[in-house]
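Hi support team,

I submitted a single chain yesterday and got back a structure, but I'm not sure I'm reading the token output correctly. Could someone confirm the output below corresponds to the sequence I sent? I've pasted both exactly as they appear in my results page.

Thanks,
R.
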Amino acid sequence: MTPKEKANELIDNFELIERSEVWEDSINLFEAKQFAFICVGEIIEALGSNRIIYGSEYRNDETDYWETVKEEINKL
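Hi R., thanks for writing in. Yes, this is the structure output for that exact sequence:
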């Protein structure tokens, strides 16, 4: 999946979440983007701890992908 496709998938998934049974509206695009940024940030942080296990080359490839996902989220 390309970073752009992953960014769209994350945003689409968060926009479908309802706040509560009291609220009938779904999360708006701004909020969905914020949630997606948090998720991607957590993934990048976790990859940083994997560097010790897998080596820096693995981390750089994966981190580059997720950094690009963040850029694509920002463009939405």
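A quick pointer for reading it: The helical segments are 3-15, 29-54, 56-75. Let us know if anything else looks off.

Best,
Support desk
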